[in-house]
Every structure is written in structure tokens, then in C-alpha cells.
Specification:
It is a single chain. By secondary structure, this protein is mainly α. It has one domain. It contains five helices and no strands. Helix 1 runs antiparallel to helix 2.
Length: 143
């Protein structure tokens, strides 16, 4: 089960990143459509699915049995603490941005909120993603 969830988590990552870029670009290109940004909905949904898959992965690992050893290992620490923290902040920013854009009083305010929150969320996704060439090289696509 762990391997299947890991493959799904790896592929849904691309959906989250692509929809984050599309939500940000749509907000930038269409000032009147920022309040009803379809890509923003897909972005938050993909982040929620990604979060659930990540929680399943975290709970199936044995990293909490010796947390001191996990914190001393930079790769284990990244996946146990740093990756989760960055991604939770990214998810929170996307959700807050979607609500603030929907409740904005003017299309210009909705556009500003969308650009700020979706842009920051997407940036955090890119920063917190384990890319090839990092300490723990991960493939771009798992099969």
C-alpha cells in the first residue's frame, strides 16, 4: 500500500503544481474572473488530495519511533518536518486566498488576493518539493 500511495503522491504533485500555476496565471490574466477562478478550486482540491496522501505516507513510515535519530538525519528530517511544514503553509495560503478572493468586494481586490496567495502557495510548493539533484534525489515521475 505504501508504494501505491507514494506513486500517487508523486503524480498528484504535478497536478497541484500545474493547477497552482494556472490559478495564478488566470488571476493575473483575467481581472474579472478572479472571484470565480475555476483553477483555484482545482488547485485547492488537488492540494487536499495531496495532503491526504502525504498523511498516509507519513503514518506508514516508522520515523516517530526514534525521533532524535530522525532529526539528526538531514534527509529523514526533511521528509518528517520540513516538507510537511512547508506544504501545510502552502495549503493554508491557497485556501485563505480562495476564500478572500471569493469574498472580495471588487474584481480588482479579488485579483490582488488571488495573485498574492496563489503565487505564494505555488512558490512554496516548488520550494518544498524534493527535486532531482537535492540531498535525496527523487525521480520526477515514479512508476
Amino acid at each position: 500500500m505504501h508504494d501505491l500511495v507514494l506513486v500517487l503522491h508523486s503524480w498528484v504533485r504535478w497536478v497541484a503544481i500545474i493547477t497552482g500555476v494556472l490559478a495564478t496565471v488566470t488571476a493575473f490574466a483575467s481581472p474579472s474572473g478572479a472571484q470565480n477562478n475555476r483553477w483555484a478550486r482545482f488547485f485547492t482540491i488537488s492540494l487536499d488530495v495531496q495532503f491526504l496522501l502525504g498523511i498516509i505516507l507519513l503514518l506508514t513510515l516508522n520515523v516517530f519511533s526514534d525521533f532524535g535519530a530522525t532529526m539528526r538525519d538531514p534527509i529523514a528530517r526533511f521528509y518528517t518536518v520540513e516538507h510537511e511544514t512547508i506544504m501545510i503553509v502552502a495549503i493554508a495560503l491557497a485556501h485563505v486566498g480562495r476564500v478572500r478572493a471569493r469574498k472580495a468586494s471588487t474584481p480588482a481586490a479579488a485579483r490582488t488576493q488571488s495573485l498574492i496567495f496563489f503565487g505564494l502557495s505555488t512558490l512554496l510548493l516548488l520550494v518544498g518539493t524534493p527535486w532531482p539533484g537535492m540531498r535525496d534525489s527523487r525521480p520526477l515521475f515514479r512508476l
